[in-house]
Amino acid sequence: MLEGLISALFNGISIGAVLLIAALGLAIVFGLMGVINLAHGELMMFGAYTTFVVQNWAKGMGGIAPEIYIFVALPLAFLVAALLGLLLERSVIRYLYGRPLETLLATWGVSLILRQFVRSVNWPMVIALAVFSLLFGVGRWVLTRYTDWDRIGSWANPVFIALSSAIALLAGYGLQNSGSGPFIRPWFGAQNVDVTPPSWLRGGVSLGSALQFPYARLFIIALTILCVLAVYWFLNGTAWGLRMRSVTQNRAMSACLGIPTEKVDAITFALGSGLAGIAGFAVTLLGSVGPNLGTNYIVDAFMVVVVGGVGKLVGSIVAALVIGIATYLIGSGTLALMFPPTPLFQPFVDFFTFFATTSMAKVMVFALIIAFLQVRPAGLFPQKGRSVEL
To answer: How far apart are CA 308 and CA 23, in angstroms?
Structure first.
């Protein structure tokens, strides 16, 4: 009984660790900018697919590469997701600040586009995107340098986007119809792909006959601790981290004091997106990777942020652990087995047995969170500051 409870607690903590990595980026972005980013799960997906690509490259290299590829995949997953998040902030979100409904709808649309992109991406599509970026980037640079862009930008910008898009689409369509074989085959497709952990992450630590702690989950817990410490150091020990905290407390006053709030927003979004990429990397150690990977975690990650308190690192840690442990204890049936087998406790056993599946456990945890928010709508650790009081 005790061994089963310890094993369940460990598995719950490992689930909470994954949720915490996924929620760290959301907590930073939502807490600072008030942006509900529904594309956060797709940023996780890109981190996971980056790990898959690096793994395939390592297998082709042979030798020791398949054993150490995760140390290359981890920073690359962060970098790819951070750059994608920075592009999203610069191209879409920066024009929608203060408009939460439009931001929510826009990021939801971006999430659908990114999912379909992963299913369909091939060489013609990549070449078409490169053509569009080259035409639009170089063309706009020439126009802004040699013309009065402030005067003509209102009509020249959409016209230039339309022309660049038309040329890129024609180029991609022509390559798609003229190519064959691997050139036009989708890189990933709609099916899930497997990421194989290095041999030293397989197996686990055995304590007794019934207790085993998998190396992969121990690695995820250690990675989560490192991420939390790194984020804490960045927010409290660097100049940009202090600027982020200042903007979180009072954006208007921070701007009056000379803090570049637009740069702070961009760096914040890139940091939050990079953490989503790390979460995607961690998820690859637990199972397969697919285009719908992000949808499995986005709701739980938002629950962690809301329950912990928006923008509160300590609150996110506590909420992630509580939600992860509660979900596993209920879903695995461990909670039902903790009651004595007597008629007095039989109703409780039947109740928790009914919820002893993963999906039903999430329903019960979600109901408990709703009840909790009725008592503490600001979460475990509510924000403090002049802007909150106003």
So the answer is: 10
Give pLDDT tens digits for 354-370.
877 777 888 888 888 88
Q: Are 14 and 328 in contact (CB under 8 A)?
A: no
AA identity, residue 387: S
What is the C-alpha separation between 127 and 172, in angstroms, rounded? 7
How far is the C-alpha of 278 from the C-alpha of 48, rounded, in Å?
8
Give the model confidence (pLDDT) of 66-107 as tens digits.
889 999 999 999 999 999 999 998 888 888 877 878 888 888
The mean pLDDT value of the chain amounts to 84
pLDDT at 387: 46
- For residues 274 and 44, is the Cβ–Cβ distance under 8 A? no
Place of tokens 């020791």: 64
Three-state DSSP class for residue 189:
coil
The token pair that represents 254 in the structure block: 């921070």
Max intra-chain CA distance, the chain: 86
Is 20 within 8 Å of 316 (Cβ atoms)? yes
Contact 127, 171 (CB under 8 A): yes
| Residues in the chain, total | 390
Query: For the chain, which residues score pLDDT lower than 50?
Result: 386-390
Quote the CA–CA distance of 283 and 44 in Å, as a whole number. 9
The residues spanned by each domain of the chain are 2-121+186-380, 122-185
Say what the pLDDT of residue 385 is. Answer: 52
Instruction: Report the alpha-carbon distance of residue 318 to residue 305 in Å, rounded.
Output: 10
Instruction: Output the six-digit token pair for 208.
Output: 């007794």
